[in-house]
Amino acid sequence: MSSVELKSIVKKYGEVTAVASIDLSVESGEFVTLLGPSGCGKTTTLRMVAGFIRPTSGTLSIGDVDMTGVPPHQRTVGLVFQNYALFPHMTVRKNVEFGLKMQKVLTSERGPRVQEALELVQLEALGERMPAELSGGQQQRVALARALVIRPDVLLLDEPFGALDKQLRDHMRVELRELQQKLKISTLFVTHDQDEALSMSDRIVVMSEGKVSQVGKPTEIYEKPQTRFVADFIGRSNILVGKVESKGKTINAEGLILPNKGNVVAGAEGISVMIRPECVEITQSGSKATSTSADVKGKVTASIYLGSIVQYSVQINKGPNLVVTQNNTGSENLKNLTVGDDVDVSFPDSAIYILPG
Ligand SMILES: Nc1ncnc2c1ncn2[C@@H]1O[C@H](COP(=O)(O)OP(=O)(O)OP(=O)(O)O)[C@@H](O)[C@H]1O
Ligand SMILES: [Mg+2]
Description:
This protein is of the alpha+beta class. The protein folds into two domains: 2-233, 3-Layer(aba) Sandwich (Rossmann fold), CATH 3.40.50.300; 238-354, CATH 2.40.50.100. Helix content is 24%, strand content 34%. The protein has helices spanning 42-50, 92-102, 107-120, 136-148, 166-183, 194-200, 218-223, 228-233, and strands spanning 2-13, 16-27, 31-35, 57-62, 65-66, 77-80, 154-158, 186-191, 203-208, 211-216, 238-245, 250-253, 256-259, 271-275, 281-284, 296-305, 309-316, 321-327, 342-346, 353-354. The strands form four sheets. The chain has a six-stranded mixed β-sheet, sandwiched between helices. Strands 13-12-11-14-20 form a five-stranded antiparallel β-sheet. The longest helix is centred in the middle third of the chain and has 18 residues, at 166-183. The relative contact order is 0.11. The model has no long low-confidence stretch (mean pLDDT 90). The structure holds adenosine-5'-triphosphate and magnesium ion (MG).
């Protein structure tokens, strides 16, 4: 059963097309993330599912029931916003209870339901506090409890961790995913943070300019991007323009000669070749015991220390500039390559990915 299904959904504001025909589904118990740059239509899509925005055209169903024209209060969706939107004059308990009052749930039933929701987010001890007396992370958990207490068919979250610092964000990420899996609640999550999307989602919907660029599991999105936009947007990447040479045996990618393992047709031009920086190995020139014929030479043109990784720029001889990253596995393992150093560059054939289309 599909929990949420959008078919050819369009939203226009006069001349502005915020969402340009989207097809999208969230299966029962699935965690789906809308990922894309600012202004690509993520919030608009989410608010159409919640019912706050009416689509210009297309249909939307929740739990296989057509909801296209149904007002928000008749949809059992739980919403969490970036700024939490807690009621400042109400205690935590009253904030969480609010949704149940709106649903006209009996008073006797409300107490245990609120308690259950507070326990889910581990806030049972703080029920009598006011929102201003809570930390950012605790406020975020109240917002989550408030969304969950109504036992929604679908949980909708719009950049819920945007206001938290990085450490807390990483922690909340794990907490939310565990809770979502425990409750098996269908979830549509919005973010422009790729780490968040890759680490939490069953499937990711990458959006660009109001359209879906690619839908897939995190590994598919990262390792097999279908478009140049997705390859560029997710992670760091080297994207080179190439042509097939030597009767189809090799690809000349801006001067870098690569084996044509993808069997691109002989004579093809303008193909995009992706090589992820973490797949490239560089070593001080001549320091390697053996060197394979596929290896190439280059020169380090930049070195940036980023803590867990070191990022280099390497100018390939008679070829392109490649971004290369190395894990910082301990200072003695760091090769301390510096700008101007000559290096041997190698990468496995499996690191060469031809972008389709
Ligand atoms: N009420 C409105 N009137 C006119 N244009 C709008 C309106 N709401 C949104 N838009 C436009 O629609 C597009 C999509 O907006 P939306 O808020 O969905 O983007 P988003 O992906 O959530 O971006 P962000 O990551 O910045 O939150 C933007 O170009 C925006 O300017
Ligand atoms: Mg938004």
